[in-house]
Design brief:
Elements: H1 6-35, H2 41-48, H3 52-78, H4 84-93, H5 96-117
Helix pairs in contact: 1-5, 3-5, 4-5
Length: 118
Amino acid sequence: MNFLSRHSIAWVYFGFAIAGAILPTLANIEFMKLYGPGFEIDKFITLANANPAASSLSRDLLISSGAMFIWIINESRRLNMKNLWIVIVGTFIIAFAFSGPLFLFLRERRLLEIENNN
C-alpha cells in the first residue's frame, strides 16, 4: 500500500520545489546585501568553505547534486520527458534545492501520463 498516491506525491515534490526556490533565493539576496550589490561567486565559494561545517555542507551538496544530475538526465531520456531545460537552467540560476524536487514533480506527472495511456 502506498503512503501517498502518485498524484499527491507529485504535489508534495512541487511544494518542495517552491520552498527550494524561495529559501535559497532569500539567502542569496541576504548575501548580496552583506557583500555588495552583485553576486560575487569567488566570495560566495570562500564563505561556503569558511569552516568545517560549511565545507561539509558544500561538499555534500556538490557530490549528491552531481550524482543526481546524471540520474536526472538519464531518467528524463528513459521516460521521454519534456521541459528538462527548466530543470537544467533552474539548477544553475536558482538552486538544486529547486530543480531536484521540480524534476521529481515532472517525473511523477510523466509517470501518471504513461499509466493513463496504458
